[in-house]
Design brief:
single chain, alpha/beta, 4-stranded parallel β-sheet, 10 strands
Length: about 270
């Protein structure tokens, strides 16, 4: 029977115990502490995000034949809610979503697809593409994550400079909520917004739901197939297909109940 290590923090809103019980239900022998050198093929390590010493540990684990599952806050909740904000309000319930993928997260990992049923179950309507707007909204990251996918230092100022060269529209910067509260609610910043420019922020997810074009510059992003990269095209966004991209997103997150029952791990392993 393969072994599983879960290094998600004990804090209640991370629901570590749900991950532990789910790994056991999926047929793994749960091991406490960090993995050593005796990792065997088929062993699993579950971590939160993939950065700092966790990235080093994950890479070593993979080199020894193990597989790494990366967890994070979910992308979208039922009816378009934000799982991360539900957590902050203490509203974690069995139907609350966490992201799970092999090797990475936010589009950098791997996960199975389905027939679109997981997306339909969220009950979210994609609004028609917006054809007007008076400003461009820049949504930077906190600057943490795996080395190959972290927002570069100085990205925000660099993107502002490049945008001013590409458009005469007003450019607004919305600070990442992890660096302090925004001055206005996200919905207000999206009012009359022409486009959102981000490295790989969850704000871009809500913008695409609202029909606002998104330009994302990270090497990988959960909705990259529905976004654009070249900000010199800020005045002529292509407005790509979103349905398939959102169906893929829905398959990259699992409810607490699905994690605890082992269903998420069984699906990810097959």
């Amino acid at each position: 029977m393969p072994n599983a290590f879960c290094l998600i923090r004990e804090s209640p809103h991370y629901r570590r115990q749900a991950f532990v019980e789910g790994l056991k239900a999926a047929g793994y022998t749960f091991k406490t502490g960090e993995p050593g050198a005796d990792v065997a093929a088929g062993d699993v390590l579950v971590i939160w995000n993939r950065y700092s010493h966790w990235e080093v540990m994950a890479t070593q684990f993979e080199r020894r034949g193990g597989r790494v599952l990366v967890a994070e806050n979910g992308y979208l909740g039922a009816n378009g809610s934000t799982p991360k904000f539900d957590v902050a309000l203490g509203l974690v319930r069995p139907e609350h979503y966490y992201a799970l993928a092999w090797d990475g997260h936010n589009g950098a990992g791997f996960w199975p697809a389905d027939d679109g049923s997981r997306w339909r179950a969220l009950g979210i309507e994609l609004k028609p593409w917006r054809k007007a707007g008076d400003h461009v909204l820049v949504c930077p990251q906190r600057g943490i994550g795996p080395r190959q996918g972290t927002q570069p230092p100085g990205w925000t100022e660099d993107i502002r400079r490049r945008l001013h060269a590409a458009t005469a529209r007003l450019v607004r910067v919305r600070p990442h909520p992890g660096l302090g509260p925004g001055t206005v609610p996200m919905a207000q910043d999206l009012e009359n917004c022409w486009a959102v420019v981000t490295w790989a922020s969850g704000a871009g997810i809500h913008a695409l739901v609202a029909g606002i074009p998104v330009f994302a510059e990270a090497p990988a992003w959960i909705l990259a197939d529905a976004a654009e990269r070249d900000i010199t095209a800020i005045e002529t966004p292509a407005c790509r297909d979103r349905q398939t991209a959102f169906e893929r997103l829905a398959c990259a997150q699992w409810s607490v109940a699905e994690i605890e029952s082992g269903e998420a791990f069984r699906k990810l392993l097959n």
